[in-house]
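Justification of resources, computational component.

The compute hours requested in this renewal are based largely on the per-chain cost of generating structure records like the one below. Each record pairs the submitted sequence with a full structure-token output. That output is archived, and it is also reused by downstream analysis tasks.
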Amino acid sequence: ELLARVRRTALAAYDHADVPFERIVDEVNPARDRSRQPLAQTMLALNSTPRVPFALRGLAVEPLHLSARVSRFDLSLGLSDQGGEIGGGLEYSTDLFDRTSMKRLLGHLVRLLAAAADDPSRRVAEIELLSPAERQQVAVELNDTAADLSGLAGGGEPRLHRWIERQAALTPGATAVVGEGESLTYRDLDARANRLARRLRRMGVRVDEPVAICAERSPALVVGLLGILKAGGAYLPLDPSYPSERLAFMIEDGLGGLAAPVLLAQVDLLAASVAGAGARLIDLDAAAGPAGDADGAPLDGGAGADNLAYVIYTSGSTGRPKGVMNTHRGIVNRIAWMQRAHGLTPADRVLQKTPVSFDVSVWELFWPLAVGARLVLARPGGHRDPAYLMRRIEEQGVTVLHFVPSMLHAFLAQPGLGRCRSLRRVIASGEALPAELAARFHELLGGAGETTELHNLYGPTEAAVEVTAHRTLPGPARRAVPIGRPIANLGIWLLDPELQPVPLGVPGELYIGGTGLARGYLRRPGLTAERFVPHPLGRPGERLYRTGDLARFSADGEIEFLGRTDDQVKLRGFRIEPGEIEAALAGHPAVREAAVVAREERPGEVRLAAYVVPAKPGPGPEAGDLRDALRRVLPEHMVPADFTLVDALPLTPSGKLDRGALRALRPERELAPAAPAAPAGGPGGGLVTELEELITGIWQDILRRGPIGLDDNLFDAGAHSLLAIQFTARVYEALALEIPLRLLFEAPTVRRLGVAIQAILIEQVAGLTDAEAEVQAE
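The structure output for this chain reads:
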């Protein structure tokens, strides 16, 4: 925003007169801080004036160098001609830099200048800054992760389903899966999956062929996934909450051209258009039932370590989602590393709550089953409800679970964290982990007794879930929580645009190599070749995945995440390509152009904002129409919270979209929801009216927007699942009433929420004595 304001000021004065420095300062109005310069933090001073000896009669004269005790800039380099040689000194702020880093920086400068002097015709980007020792450190030593994990689980078996078969033989009667009202032993799980696998083989499913599966979280889903693997196929998960058009595309794209395309589904979840999208449909609930003796016998589908285990679709920058193909070898290595790092035992309980269409669900599902622990399933939709998750942790004695940081923040805000006494380990990934959130976690879940661990992990779908790990520790919050070091048998290279390693402390694009790398994108050879590139530092045939993420190595070898090289965003754990949303908006007949950016309304709260250029003059499209059109083709998390009408999209001098200027753009007109409805009481009279006032006030404060009508859809006004969690916490503070999160999705307006909350209050009061009811009423 600062640069955008400077640019606007300069352009406004360009055709008129020179711009005085004072004018720039007045226009930009930077925040004042007496400890630093407001507009410049680094300085290079080169004094080329030769020193002329001189003498004064009767006096001894010699140069005197005065050294300041306080750095005037963050970093300043002073150089001068010293008798034919260039010498000088580096001054730096010790609050920002350490002596070792500065010595390394000067070494890089000396190597740069020496190489330039030796061959002035060389491009600067081609000059090697690293010393041989530094290059060995960042390219080799920090990626020395080779490890033999074969003895940890599965007896060295490189296929995921074989691990679970081995465990079923060791502990057949132990409980493997616990759902809501249903559980399976290891014997039952293995036998039912064998029965399903035989049926899939009879239908023609073969090695490396995706099998689509669409089901709510349940024991039947686990049987379905395991059955597909046993048949030799790769499971392709479909989220039943996705729009039918998107599901139909994934089925056609993922199964198209197969001799035996198969869709496993809980049939009541699928629209007829999806169920008939060219695949033979199997009723999962019926197919995952008890197996006869013959059907339950072991089956070898023929898949090997380098065959596909699963295909997960992610957002695509070209407007089409893309399927990432991951192998048994990659996910087996990932789970074996996790077992080495954390040592799960049969006494552990792992909560599975991530939607199966996201790759974190892979280790949630299969890690506990591979080592004899218990897999505890959250109910469908339960992953969005912290109060429910807390009860599930307490009831089932959950010891391990995963949180996206934004959801962890909501979880820690819930009352009653002391009920989670069984919790021993929390894995965070999917978003950057704020240092303040990590510190709060240790404050609330640490203390006396056994402390709950918090681990920060990082990784894209293209590399078998996560590829780096860092354990956070209690104590003062540091500037940023590192994403850690590479896990076993994977490597992380931070490279410059010339594909050469960058020095410690210098940002570079993050590339991943090693055992966990995906095969590529399903039926997208061009995109695969673009993102999976030859390893510039490795052996012939080795590949790296180019993530598009920026990171740097700290002095101690930890990796710090810095952001993106492109426009991709992470929102509440979802990986989103704005280009896919923009393509969907551009398909609307009332839209000529559209751009989508992630906008931080307040610290930690990021929203998608769409800027729309109408197709013709006039009032333009309505926000509700645009939302409805997007919801037909995109998941809910990809529908922008805000829509703004603009005459034109800002461009850079090269003609590209200027997203920085877009965020600072003053909208000509914001496309808000319909005007608020007039207040009116509902069933129940005054009580509901008071509730409506309370509900409206809370939502207006959470959304930071003007009046909300009684019949406005709260999710059209900008609400989402994490804000809904804030609402339930505020209601608890105001009424001492715990309301289920699903209520907000079932009753998404103020009026309907008022009626629903009143019903809960009446039901609660009906079970009280007269005295208790009087206290409750007060």
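Confidence is low (pLDDT under 50) at residues 672-687. Residues 99-118 form the longest helix (20 residues).
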